[in-house]
Design goal:
- The complex is a heterodimer of chains A (161) and B (92).
- With 161 residues, chain A is mainly alpha-helical.
- Chain A is built from seven helices and three strands.
- A three-stranded antiparallel beta sheet of chain A has the order 1-2-3.
- In chain A, a hairpin with a 2-residue loop joins β1 and β2.
- In chain A, α2 runs antiparallel to α4 and α5 packs antiparallel against α7.
- Chain B has 92 residues and is an alpha+beta fold.
- Chain B has a domain of 62 residues: 2-Layer Sandwich (Ribosomal Protein L30, Chain: A), CATH 3.30.1390.
- Chain B has three helices and three strands.
- In chain B, α1 packs across α2.
- The longest helix of chain B has 14 residues.
- The model of chain B has no long low-confidence stretch (mean pLDDT 88).
- Classes of the chains: A mainly alpha (161), B alpha+beta (92).
- The interface between A and B is medium-sized, with 39 and 25 residues.
Chain lengths: 161, 92
């Protein structure tokens, strides 16, 4: 079964029970991250915006952080709603599918940070179970990216010749 | 053309004031290359070629400037990149 298929109305999402069991854990995982500084996953999702200016960074997060949290929470809700209907297959609009994509990505970022992946070489050192969890999510994300990119084919440049 | 005398130049203690603000995307070991290309095309309307060039600059050189402009715009672009989980910072 192909989990993500482009249709004229959006992306047809159809997921196997095993996939659903795994993916259902993600919104809660992301909603329950600790505080930045204590939880590497939270730190990764709240990086400094001004590297050489901590005051401006704090100001940015003070002004934008709440909105970003709300945006991420809305993505998690969209993700959960799609999962609820994905056994029989459900068409997600493009914005909904993009929310789904962001949750998959955010989950990989958070998980990678928790597992201590800071440089690419760290990934190769991971125990197999941890690496396969990241790979699983990357596979899902890749399939959704392919489905979302099909609509782009029409605006690719014509080959010169 | 006005005959009004020009205003005296205002002393400017910060020579960087007129420089545009840049949004930098940093390499990280988790984000997928295809995803970075997708996000850059989505947010900035880049062609596939330009988005791929920027993604490879991030990957190979560790960072790349993906947009520039007034500070408010740079901060908003940074926000949109953070929504997609890219590691973005603002600098002048």
């Amino acid at each position: 079964m192909i989990p993500f298929l482009p249709t004229p109305d959006g992306i047809l999402v159809t997921l196997e029970p095993d996939d659903l069991d795994l993916l259902r854990q993600l919104p809660e995982f992301l909603a329950q991250l600790g505080d930045p500084g204590e939880d590497p996953a939270a730190s990764r999702l709240q990086v400094p915006v001004y590297l050489d200016d901590p005051e401006s960074s704090e100001e940015w997060w003070r002004l934008m952080g709440g909105e970003l949290d709300q945006s991420r929470a809305a993505d998690r809700s969209a993700f959960a709603l799609i999962l609820e209907a994905a056994t029989a297959g459900t068409v997600a609009s493009i914005p909904e599918a993009e929310a789904f994509l962001r949750v998959l990505n955010e989950s990989r970022l958070a998980l990678g940070a928790r597992l201590g992946v800071e440089v690419e070489a760290d990934y190769d050192e991971l125990p197999e179970d941890d690496r396969s969890a990241l790979d699983y999510l990357a596979g899902m994300q890749g399939l959704l990216l392919v489905a979302l990119s099909v609509g782009d084919l029409s605006d690719l440049d014509e080959p010169e010749g | 053309m006005t005959t009004k005398p020009l205003d005296a130049p205002v002393a400017d203690s910060d020579v960087k004031t007129d420089l545009p603000w840049q949004v930098i995307v940093w390499n990280d070991p988790v984000n997928l290359m295809d995803y970075v290309v997708f996000v850059l095309r989505k947010l900035f309307g880049h062609t596939l070629e330009e988005a791929t060039r920027l993604m490879l600059a991030v990957h190979n050189e560790g960072r790349a400037a993906v947009s520039q402009g007034p500070r408010e715009q740079a901060e908003m672009d940074c926000y949109r990149l953070h929504q997609y989980g890219l590691w973005a910072t603002v600098e002048q």
